[in-house]
Structure formats: C-alpha cells, structure tokens
Design brief:
With 139 residues, the chain is of the alpha+beta class. It contains four helices and five strands.
Length: 139
C-alpha cells in the first residue's frame, strides 16, 4: 500500500440529491469545498458556483423529484474546476438559446456557456441511463 496516497487531497467531490429547488444551494457548498480544499482562486469559485447552480437548476426544473448527481473535479496544480450534473434523461439534450431583450427564460445556459469561455457541453452517459452536462472554469 502506498502510504502517500492515504494523505492525498481528493480531486473530485460528488453529491447525489433529489431534484428539488430547496436542494440547489448544496451545489454551491460543493464548489466551496472543492475551491477551499484545492486552493483555487476566488474567480474560479464565483464562476463555478454560478455555473453549477444553473446546471443543477435546469435539472431541478426538468426532473423534479428524481435523483441527480453533481460533481466537481480538478487536476492537481491547475486553477481549473470541472463541473458536471447527471440527470436520468438521455434524450432531452440542452439547447443554448440566443439571448433576447424580452426573453424571460433560457438565459442561464447561455450565461454558463459564456462564463466557462465556451467550455460547456453534454454527452449521453455510458455508465448509467441519462446524460451529463458539464463545464470547465479557470484559465
């Protein structure tokens, strides 16, 4: 057994939650835990919280009451945060809608896309029926 591995800081934090609006605040706490543990910048914290909150809110709106999985990860030595939300629907893929002056919804994913410097995407999960929506923030 490699003793050094016992003392490594984990590079991924996971959270399973039921998709209810009152649970969304938990994803901000997950970002805080990651940023504090890994010594990432405040800019990464701020953008990460906004983006992951938006991704989780979309899952709550579409799959209320169902289980969703949220995680954040980072590579050692990089000020980069990877954010992801898994939901149980592999067929309802996200759409980044064009922003309009009078639009009352649909802005969150476009905002997340811009905050992540266009590093946002999705894929059908290969391990569980559903899809993963992901984004990266940082340099």
């Amino acid at each position: 057994m490699d003793i050094a591995r016992l003392y490594e800081i984990p590079r991924r934090f996971d959270l399973k939650l039921f998709a209810y609006a009152e649970n969304v605040y938990l994803v901000r706490n997950l970002v805080d835990q990651a940023v504090d543990s890994w010594g990432l910048s405040e800019n990464v914290r701020f953008a990460g919280q906004l983006i992951l909150t938006e991704l989780a809110t979309n899952a709550v709106r579409l799959y209320e009451g169902k289980e969703v999985h949220v995680w954040v990860s980072s590579q050692a030595g990089r000020d980069l945060l990877e954010l992801a939300v898994w939901d149980p629907d592999p067929d309802n893929l996200p759409k980044i809608l064009p922003l309009t002056e009078c639009g009352e919804s649909g802005r969150g994913l476009a905002l997340a896309y811009e905050l992540s410097d266009q590093r946002l995407g999705w894929y059908r999960s290969t391990t569980a029926r559903g899809k993963v929506v992901w984004a990266r923030v940082g340099p």
